[in-house]
Every structure is written in structure tokens, then in C-alpha cells.
Write a structure and sequence with these properties.
By secondary structure, this protein is an alpha/beta fold. The chain is built from 25 helices and 28 strands. The termini are far apart. The model has no long low-confidence stretch (mean pLDDT 93). Bound molecules: iron/sulfur cluster.
Length: 690
């Protein structure tokens, strides 16, 4: 008879979306054995389907040993050999082409401590060529527009403020599937307390089911709608005059632009009835306090940054800043986007989000790190990366916890460029689409197999404890950074043996994390909200109280005129393809597709088509057909529905959708590709297409 197996419970922070839910991981003999709910934190015991099944941690497909590409495929090698090979190539490339021929694409799922150590290593190698995937696929337009208008790119308040709102406007945000805890615990609480929920989305999502007002905007024309709502607020004198007079600059310019967007004129472009536009404006104007939140749908078109500027400005016209019950901003899809940028994973920003061009700050950081100076020219961001590979300016790429071959627009283009590199290293937990192209693959420990802190979209920093042992010889990202540094002659600069040591250094470097000490974090159930500049500081839940982070202290109002897209549907590609997400899968599905129950329940790719168009094409519910665009094709299962307009096809993003998207058609302000607006056609087996 065997003895009883001891089950351990350890607190971790969820590795998926940026809500920052906490839970206990159960383990037996160091292996994952399940999840248990934990009181407190943002989720207070609730979890969404993804975090109920972390069985991918035990998957036999996890990487366990370093791999080296040979002519006959991958061969297992020892860590020492793998690290020597990598360091040898780094030295060769630096010697023959200079440090800017190196590039690093790092994960937004890393702990803050890992992110800090990695950016330090990269900068000490002499380059600022380091970036993360979210710049291209996620909220870069939000960060840019937020910095321009408010002086910060963070969410202005917390989910508790959303629950305290009288109106919640969700713009292109299917919170019910992408931020289920926000939807279930906060938006629904606001609604139960009498708040009006307004949902703007071209697809009638599960979130739209809960809306008091659902606005089915024509894909890509959101800016017209936003301008028109502001037109009503201004022309009918419904905006918050006092707030605008005291706290806003640039208002006249907004008045001049939005005057042409009467509801009647706007309706012709965005497809929303004029009466609905007025109803939205009146509902917003009646509320003393409210929230405007947006997500990927708002930030992946050719007008993304302008739309974000308009949404921030709409909130300013309502006076929804710096007060409890008001929360404004874009929600980041991955769990530590804000944290890794705070730590300096950015080609133009040092830790603390200070520009690399700031000589005083850069030099004082350099002296703290024991060198004279650090590279001062901004590095190549991920958007420029492929052009630089083409031109031979980047020859070595290190991809850590990212999967650009699947996550970036136009997968074939990305693959073609990754193959052109002299040397590609991928560090991950599975052999992803990108890892399959690598020269060396390093097995990484997953988040629950190590410890460190994450910063959620609410700016809530929390400690995630080590719950499990990594499989085989998998190592944490921090261990790998330290090992590489030793072999590259930088061992004394990264002398860390624990993440706590790194965080103590961060406390002294990044002002807003000055009080986020390891001890405080480990003791706190709720975490600490940054800015938290000193050990006795309680943290900051509300931003923009009494002044904005701009030179004048005022909000800088911005919007722009709508411009037609350069690529439009036509006879060859008559529909507009938009990509959507589902609750049980995440990102490129490398984790969720390896989780037993999630894989069983959520399979893709699937697409929604309007019933009238389906009848025309002969598509039945559940039948397969091919979606074709200018860059590729994908066979998918169709669902016939009234949830999309006749001109729209909505395709799940997680399973290969980027074979269909176009990397060249992008937001001119940020380079983020328009994966929410891709002209396409549908080909049905047997010949009919449209
Ligand atoms: Fe994780 Fe987000 Fe689900 Fe919370 S809502 S459990 S953070 S995926």
C-alpha cells in the first residue's frame, strides 16, 4: 500500500490576460495537480475557464533539453554547449557587424525581475534593439495616444472604479471572453447598481448581450462614430464645460474637426443610425462618472492611434478623469505588458520609461551598472526588424517567450525573414511555430515553476510564488540571462541568484517601484498599485487627480478626420475580415492548445457569416469553406448567424488567422497592422464564392 500523497498549495498570479487574477496551484511531488480558488485580489475567488485548466504544465510536449538544428533535424544537446554556441555567435556578430546587428524579441509574460535583467544584459552588449510583441499586436496606439493626451499610457484607475461607474462604454472590447473577471465581477456589478452598459463592436459578441445599448459599427469606421458622439456633446452643450475650461487644452481644434460629423452624416459612413448616436451621447452626458475601456478592435485598424486619441478626448469632454468611479484606457491582452515596459523592454525607453536620449538619466544608470555609458540611439523596434533583416543589418535574433511566426500579421512574410537570419535562438516552453525555425532552442520554465512579480493592467504589482519544479532541464529566464552574462564577460554586472535581488535593484532604479519591495509584495494579498515610490507609500489607485502628466498639467485634446482605407473590399475580395478571440483559448494557443480540457472544448479556426450571405454562397451552419485574402488562405468551419453584418466575416484569431492578414496595411502613427480590417472572399467547395 502506498502512502498518502501530500498536496501543496502555492499562490500564483494568472499568466494569461492582464487582469492579474490570483489562485492557488496544487502540486504533488513538484508536479501540477490542479487549481484552487483564493480569496482576495482582483478576482476574489473567481476564475475564468482558461485558468481552470493549466494541464499544459504537465504536457509531454514540454521542452526538456536544449535543441540544436542539424541537417537531420533537431538534436538534444547539453546546456553548456548551447550557451557556448549562442555566446560564440553573439561575439562573432558584434566583432564583424557591431552590436546593432543583434536583436532581442522578449516576452510580455516575463516577470518584472526577468525583464529588468534581460534589458540590462542587452544594453550592456551595446544595443537598444530590444522589443516585445505587444508593440505590434496590442496596445501601442493606446500607449502613444495616452502619452500625448494625458502624459501616461496606463489605465487611469482600477476595476473597482469601473464597478462604481454610472455608464460603462466598452469599445471593441469583448470583455466577456477576453477579460471575463472584469466583465463578471465589475461591469456586471455596475449594471446591477443601475449603470448603463454601452457596447460598440462590429460583432455582436457575448459582451454585447449584456448591453443596454449595442452599437454595431461598420468595421474600421469607429473614428467617425467617436467624432459624431463628440459632435452631439458639443453642439447640444452637453459636455462638462467646467472640466474642459479648467483642465483641457486643444478643445477648439476638436470643435473644428467634429463639427462636420453630425449624426446624420456620420451614419452614412459608420452604418450606425443617427438616433442611436444621439442616444449614446445623451446616455454618456447624463452620467456624473463613467468608464471608457477599449481593446484590440480599437487598436488594429489604419486609424488606431487617432481613435485612441478620440476616446481619451471623449472622456475629457465628460470630465471622467481623476475621480473615483471613472476609469479610462485600453486593456492589454497579455499579463505583464505594463510591467515589462516599466522595466525597460523597449527600444527607446530605459527602466522607468525614460527615453534613452535623456543623457543625465542614461549616464547615471550606466554608472550604477558600472559602465561609462549605454547606447543612446533608439533601437530597432519589432516593426522595423524585418526590414533590417532584409537589409542585412540584423543578423542574430533571440526570441524569448514570443511566437512571431504565428502572432504577427502575414505569417509567410515573417517566416521568410526569420529564415534569412544568420542565427536564431528561441527560448520557450513548447516547440512553437517560431521555435521550429531556430538554430538553437532553449527549454524554459513556465511561470508557475519560478517566482517573481507581475504588474496588471490596473498597475497592481503582485508576487507569484514558485509552485512546481520545471520539467527536465528547463530553466527560468533569469537563470539564462545570468548564465549568458557570465559567458559574455558581464557576470559581475548581473550577479543575481534570486529574483528578490533583482527587485531590490529595481527599487533603487525605477522611481514608481521604489516602495514595491519583495517583503511588502509577498505579504500583501491585494498587491501594490504603482506609482508607489517609497517603502511607506500606500500605492496609487487613481491617476490624473488635479493635474495631468503634461508640461501644463492639462489634458491635451486630440482627434482627427476620418480617412478612407487604402485597401477596400471590391469584386475580388468583397467581405471585410475581422479577427476575434474566444474565452477558452489565448494568444497563439501554444499553452491553451496543450491544455487537455481547453483543447477539447475550444477548437478552431471558426468563422461567423451573416445568414443572408451564407444562403447566397450555399454555406450551412457547421460546414467548411475557405477564406482567401491577398496574403493567404485558410479553411475554417463557418457558423451562420445574425451577429455580424452582411459585409463582415469574423474569424477566431488563435488558430492561424495571421496567414490571412497583411503586414503592409497599417496604422501610420504606430505601424500596427490592420488585422481588424482585411478584404477577403469566401470559397465554397463545389465552386461558389463571394
Ligand atoms: Fe486569468 Fe484573465 Fe481569466 Fe483572470 S480573467 S483568470 S487573469 S485569463
Amino acid at each position: 500500500m502506498g502512502g498518502l500523497t501530500r498536496v501543496e498549495r502555492v499562490k500564483v498570479v494568472c499568466p494569461y490576460c492582464s487582469a492579474g487574477c490570483i489562485m492557488s496551484i496544487l502540486s504533488s511531488n513538484g508536479r501540477y495537480a490542479g487549481v484552487e480558488y483564493l480569496k482576495g485580489g482582483v478576482n476574489d475567488g473567481a476564475l475564468c475557464p482558461k485558468s481552470n485548466d493549466f494541464s499544459f504544465l504537465n504536457s509531454p510536449r514540454r521542452l526538456r533539453k536544449p535543441l540544436k538544428r542539424t541537417e537531420s533535424g533537431f538534436k538534444e544537446i547539453e546546456w553548456g554547449e548551447a550557451l557556448d554556441l549562442i555566446c560564440g555567435r553573439i561575439k562573432d556578430v558584434v566583432a564583424s557587424h557591431g552590436p546593432d546587428a543583434l536583436a532581442f524579441l522578449l516576452s510580455v509574460k516575463m516577470f518584472n525581475e526577468e525583464a529588468y535583467a534581460w534589458q540590462k544584459l542587452v544594453r550592456l552588449l551595446g544595443t537598444n534593439n530590444l522589443d516585445h510583441e505587444c508593440r505590434r499586436m496590442c496596445q501601442f496606439p493606446t500607449l502613444k495616444a495616452g502619452s500625448e493626451t494625458m502624459g501616461v499610457g496606463y489605465l487611469t484607475a482600477t476595476f473597482e472604479d469601473v464597478a462604481g461607474s454610472e455608464v460603462v462604454l466598452l469599445w471593441g472590447l469583448n470583455a466577456a471572453e477576453t477579460f471575463p473577471i472584469l466583465m463578471g465581477k465589475y461591469v456586471m456589478r455596475a449594471k446591477e447598481n443601475g449603470a448603463k452598459i454601452i457596447v460598440v463592436d462590429p460583432v455582436k459578441t457575448r459582451t454585447a448581450w449584456q448591453a443596454n445599448i449595442y452599437v454595431q459599427v461598420r468595421p474600421g469606421t469607429d473614428l467617425v462614430l467617436a467624432n459624431s458622439i463628440m459632435n452631439v456633446l458639443i453642439t447640444e452643450n452637453l459636455y462638462n464645460r467646467r472640466f474642459v475650461e479648467e483642465m483641457v487644452e486643444g478643445f477648439d481644434n476638436v470643435v473644428e474637426i467634429v463639427k462636420d460629423y453630425t449624426p446624420e452624416e456620420a451614419s452614412k459612413i459608420c452604418g450606425v443610425p443617427a438616433g442611436t448616436i444621439r442616444e449614446v451621447a445623451y446616455t454618456l452626458a447624463r452620467a456624473e462618472k463613467g468608464s471608457i475601456l477599449w481593446s484590440a478592435s480599437a487598436v488594429q485598424t489604419w486609424l488606431s492611434t487617432n481613435l485612441c486619441r478620440a476616446l481619451y478626448t471623449l472622456a475629457a469632454l465628460l470630465g471622467w478623469y481623476g475621480r473615483e468611479g471613472c476609469c479610462v484606457g485600453g486593456l492589454k491582452g497579455q499579463n505583464n505588458v505594463d510591467g515589462v515596459i516599466d522595466m525597460g523592454i523597449h527600444p527607446a525607453l530605459l527602466p522607468g520609461r525614460v527615453p534613452v536620449s535623456n543623457d543625465d538619466y542614461r549616464k547615471s544608470l550606466a554608472s550604477r551598472w558600472g559602465v561609462e555609458d549605454l547606447p543612446k540611439n533608439p533601437g530597432k523596434n519589432i516593426i522595423k526588424l524585418y526590414e533590417s533583416i532584409d537589409a542585412g543589418r540584423v543578423r542574430f535574433l533571440y526570441v524569448l517567450g514570443a511566437n512571431p511566426a504565428a502572432s504577427e500579421a502575414n505569417s509567410s512574410y515573417v517566416e521568410e525573414h526569420l529564415r534569412k537570419l544568420d542565427f536564431l535562438v528561441v527560448q520557450d516552453i513548447f516547440l512553437t511555430e517560431t521555435a521550429r525555425l531556430a538554430d538553437i532552442v532553449l527549454p524554459a520554465a513556465a511561470w508557475a515553476e519560478k517566482s517573481g512579480s507581475f504588474t496588471s493592467v490596473e498597475r497592481r504589482v503582485q508576487w507569484s510564488f514558485k509552485a512546481l519544479e520545471p520539467p527536465g532541464e528547463a530553466r527560468s529566464d533569469l537563470e539564462v540571462a545570468v548564465e549568458l552574462a557570465k559567458r559574455l564577460g558581464l557576470g559581475d554586472k548581473l550577479p543575481y541568484s534570486t529574483p528578490e535581488e533583482v527587485l531590490r535593484e529595481v527599487n533603487g532604479v525605477v522611481k514608481s517601484y521604489g516602495g514595491v519591495t519583495p517583503d511588502r509584495l509577498k505579504e500583501s494579498v491585494e498587491g501594490l498599485f504603482i506609482p508607489c515610490p517609497s517603502p511607506d507609500h500606500p500605492g496609487t489607485r487613481l491617476l490624473c487627480v488635479g493635474r495631468f502628466n503634461t508640461p501644463s498639467g492639462k489634458f491635451r485634446a486630440r482627434t482627427a478626420r476620418y480617412e478612407e482605407p487604402p485597401i477596400k473590399p471590391g469584386p475580388e475580395y468583397p467581405y471585410i475580415l475581422v479577427t476575434v478571440r474566444v474565452i477558452g483559448s489565448w494568444h497563439t494557443a501554444s499553452m491553451t492548445n496543450n491544455a487537455e480540457y481547453l483543447r477539447e472544448r475550444w477548437r478552431g479556426p471558426t468563422a461567423l457569416i451573416n445568414a443572408v450571405e451564407a444562403a447566397k454562397l450555399g454555406i450551412k451552419d457547421g460546414s467548411k469553406a475557405k477564406i482567401v485574402t491577398g496574403t493567404g488562405e485558410l479553411t475554417v468551419t463557418f457558423h451562420v448567424t445574425d451577429k455580424v453584418r452582411r459585409d463582415t466575416i469574423a474569424l477566431t484569431w488563435h488558430w492561424g488567422a495571421n496567414r490571412l492578414t497583411n503586414h503592409e496595411f497599417k496604422d501610420p502613427d504606430t505601424g500596427v497592422p490592420c488585422v481588424k480590417y482585411v478584404p477577403c472572399r469566401v470559397e465554397v467547395p463545389g465552386g461558389r464564392h463571394g
